Amino acid sequence: SQQGEEDPQALSIQEGENATMNCSYKTSINNLQWYRQNSGRGLVHLILIRSNEREKHSGRLRVTLDTSKKSSSLLITASRAADTASYFCAFGMEYGNKLVFGAGTILRVKS
Amino acid sequence: EPEVTQTPSHQVTQMGQEVILRCVPISNHLYFYWYRQILGQKVEFLVSFYNNEISEKSEIFDDQFSVERPDGSNFTLKIRSTKLEDSAMYFCASSDARVAFFGQGTRLTVV
Hints:
The complex is a heterodimer of chains A (111) and B (111). Chain A contains no helices and eleven strands. Chain A has 111 residues and is mostly beta strands. In chain A, the strands form two sheets. In chain A, strands 2, 4, 5, 9, 10 and 11 form a six-stranded mixed β-sheet that branches. A five-stranded antiparallel β-sheet of chain A has the order 1-3-8-7-6, with no helix packed on it. In chain B, 0% of the residues lie in helices and 52% in strands. In chain B, the strands form two sheets. In chain B, strands 2, 4, 5, 6, 9, 10 and 11 form a seven-stranded mixed β-sheet that branches. Chain B has a four-stranded antiparallel β-sheet with strand order 1-3-8-7, with no helix packed on it. In chain B, strand 5 and strand 6 (53-57) form a beta hairpin. The relative contact order of chain B is 0.34. Chain A binds chain B through residues 3, 31, 33, 35, 40-45, 48, 88, 90, 95-104, and chain B through 30-31, 33, 35, 42-45, 48, 50, 55-56, 58, 89, 91, 93, 95, 97-105, 107.
């Protein structure tokens, strides 16, 4: 199966704390992307990391990729209540091809 | 900022009826996709479309489903003879071969 897995399934933290979400996959990939989904809404692209990259930053987001362990993590620093959402990793075997999504992590940031 | 737009946002249909979900991808993108998300579950790939033809389809995308690009801007998903289990959020996405941008989705409810 090409499916990705994420953990934790749910995470509840206080505003200001850091949130870390992990994603694992089974096949060789070309890129891995992280998306956010607010309840009942569309998927918002957060960040893309290529298979030859190990770490990438975007604002308060930090993504790492370990291709030897077939895993990635998303770190959100100094979380805010507005970060409350579901976060999904999605990986692509080739650019332009389909994305395979993980099960997602539900993040709740309490103010 | 360019975005993928989907209509309608919500569609209720009777079992056995046909529905057409519509999408306007980002104008200079060449790759188009349909995904679905059953409530509380993973985002699942349905079909990808490139160069006016299907490039890949999943097991879910059986003869009940079809896609079209009837003109230079729209991209449609047709579901013939809907079943109760087709109830889900359907997402259209378009890509520049790197990042896939998603629409807000159409919530399909089959009754």
